From TrEMBL:
Keywords: Cell membrane, Membrane, Transmembrane, Transmembrane helix, Transport. This is MFS transporter. The chain crosses the membrane at residues 69-85, 97-127, 170-194, 236-257, 269-290, 302-325, 331-348, 360-379, 385-406. One of its GO terms (cellular component) is plasma membrane. It is a multi-pass membrane protein. PANTHER family: INTEGRAL MEMBRANE EFFLUX PROTEIN-RELATED, STAPHYLOFERRIN A TRANSPORTER. Pfam families: MFS_3. It is found in: Cell membrane. CDD domains: MFS_MefA_like (cd06173). The keyword Plastid does not apply.
Length: 549
């Protein structure tokens, strides 16, 4: 399972716990905490099992990579599924995969057929289920709770997970030390069954679209395009990816720190992980106060510095007490950083694409974490554990400085939802949903004194239309009639044209009104809809696909 990205607001606010009054959200949220407890126990058990059967520092560090790599590989696909199919069913399928992977791992441990690569394989399979589940669950929050409660619901996801983090690793260490690895894996499998049964029982209404479902190829393309055109999302993803790459050394190398520097066992490892979780919860509770006093960019820099101090302390200390304090500081920086980048993605994403933007975010940051696990494991094995932790500290300071290039921007309100109210213009041809390509032309009459203002508005209009589906957007000025300007763009099919207009928000419509005020004609700007037809030779037309109409 991935870290749950969230915005942590003031826990004293009256609305913070409002989502828990919603029975469906409350049931799934509580079940998720049980599952998270099992996952944290399993993380301790897998890491310690690998540390005991393998002498390779790299193999120990790759445990973190195997649990994060699936999100890098599958998240974009999972996000498209979450936005185009029943999110509840996608969540259920992901949970089923987690149960199957955990049960198989428990079985091979019981039979004694364990090897380093087998452990990594089952860890990878379980993480595949999490990669499928997480984008659908994050996107479902807005379907289950009222819009005004979405920030509070996301807060609860983050605080809940990090609360469990304070006891899960320690409990895992106790179970492993007292009852053995098999007991830990068995308990984990049982905890995975709890949310599976809850999702099966709970149902919630989802606003359905009157348009046909997008193809997976188009859905993925639209998600990638929207993300690429959002400077807020790109900055958040860039900082999150770099932070994950640099900071994961703390968790990936912690089993080696306990074994080699501190001379401890699984109980010590679990206790130190609990210290990390305690710092995370404290930061979650205090985050609302921090956000009122400091900008998000300042919080991100402080988070990087806190994690750098943690990594450097682990490299230099031989005291479990000092390591626990350092890890509490690192946990506080960890949750504050992920909260900042996570809320940036959430608030910058409208409902129609939120599953895909979250999945792209998860894919890249988990890719960074997986790469970081490999990098720091390699450095530890080739040079020394101390070198790896000191290198991580230096890299985190560079991530703090990267705010010059990728600053996190402040946003206090979420991206408005689409109006989804559009009356399709009448056409003389009998168009089918996949008829196309469609060419849209809008002609304006603009006085010379208003040209600069018009161009400024059209730049905004190009950005808005392109991110919701317009292709090849251009603006032309008539050389013989300089007052005449023509806006042109294309959509692959008639359905894509309808979908584009369904995705426009009230803010987008207000921009149209501002453009209209600059129009000098007595009548409204004239819009022309056309369908492209091929003009190639019959021989080439036999090879090239024909537009559908």
């Amino acid at each position: 399972m991935s870290r749950v990205a969230g915005s942590v607001e003031d826990l004293a606010a009256p609305t913070t716990f409002a989502p828990l009054l919603q029975p469906t959200f409350r049931s799934i949220w509580l079940a998720t905490q049980v599952s998270s407890l099992g996952w944290l126990m399993q993380t301790v058990a897998i890491s310690w099992l690998m540390a005991t059967i393998s002498t390779s520092d790299l193999m120990v560090a790759l445990v973190q990579a195997s649990s994060n790599l699936p999100a890098f590989i599958l998240s974009v696909f999972a996000g498209a599924l979450a936005d185009n199919f029943s999110r509840r069913r996608v969540m259920f399928a992901g949970r089923c995969l987690m149960v199957i992977g955990s049960a198989m791992l428990t079985a091979v441990v019981a039979l004694g057929f364990v090897s380093p690569w087998m452990i990594l394989g089952f860890s990878f399979l379980i993480a595949c289920g999490g990669a499928l589940h997480d984008p659908a669950w994050q996107a479902s929050v807005g379907d289950i709770v009222d819009r005004r409660d979405v920030p509070a619901a996301v807060t609860l996801l983050s605080v809940g997970f990090n609360t469990v983090r304070t006891v899960g690793p320690a409990l895992g260490g106790i179970v492993v030390a007292s009852f053995g690895l098999l007991a830990a894996f068995t308990v984990t499998t049982l905890t995975y069954l709890v949310p599976l049964g809850t999702i099966w029982r709970c149902k919630w209404k989802v606003r359905s679209s009157p348009l046909p479902r997008e193809s997976m190829r188009t859905a993925i393309y639209d998600g990638l395009r929207f993300t690429a055109m959002s400077s807020e999302i790109k900055a958040a993803i860039a900082r999150g990816t770099l932070f994950g790459l640099a900071s994961i050394a703390i968790l990936a190398l912690l089993p080696l720190v306990v074994r080699d520097h501190l001379g401890g066992g699984p109980l010590a490892y679990g206790t130190l992980m609990a210290g990390f979780g305690t710092g995370a919860v404290f930061a979650g509770i205090s985050n609302g106060t921090f956000r009122r006093s400091l900008s998000q960019e300042r919080l991100m820099k402080l988070s990087c510095i806190a994690c750098a101090a943690c990594s450097l302390s682990l490299a230099l200390t031989s005291s479990i007490a000092v390591a626990a304090i350092a890890l509490a500081l690192g946990g506080a920086g960890w949750v504050t950083a992920w909260s900042g980048v996570g809320v940036s993605v959430q608030l910058a994403s409208p409902r129609w694409v939120v599953g895909r933007t979250i999945s792209i975010y998860y894919a890249l940051i988990d890719g960074g974490i997986a790469a970081g696990s490999w990098v720091w494991g390699t450095v530890s094995q080739s040079h020394s554990l101390t070198w790896a932790l000191e290198g991580s500290a230096g890299a985190l300071l560079l991530v703090a400085a990267a705010g010059v290039l990728f600053p996190l921007r402040e946003r206090h309100e979420s991206e408005p939802d689409p109006l989804e109210a559009f009356d399709a213009p009448a056409v003389a041809l009998n168009l089918k949903p996949r008829s196309g390509p469609i060419v849209v032309k809008v002609e304006y009459l603009i006085a010379e004194k208003n040209v600069e203002a018009f161009l400024d508005l059209m730049r905004q209009r190009r950005h808005i239309h392109s991110r919701v589906g317009a292709r090849n957007w251009t603006l032309q000025r008539n050389l013989q009639k300089p007052m005449q300007w023509t806006e042109t763009f294309r959509t692959p099919t008639w359905t894509d044209y309808l979908r584009l207009n369904h995705r426009l928000t009230e803010v987008d419509k207000e921009l149209d009104e501002r453009v209209l005020k600059l129009h000098a004609g007595e009548e409204a700007p004239q819009m022309t809809l056309s369908i492209e037809r091929p003009t190639s030779s019959p021989r080439k037309r036999a090879i090239l696909p024909l537009p559908r109409h």
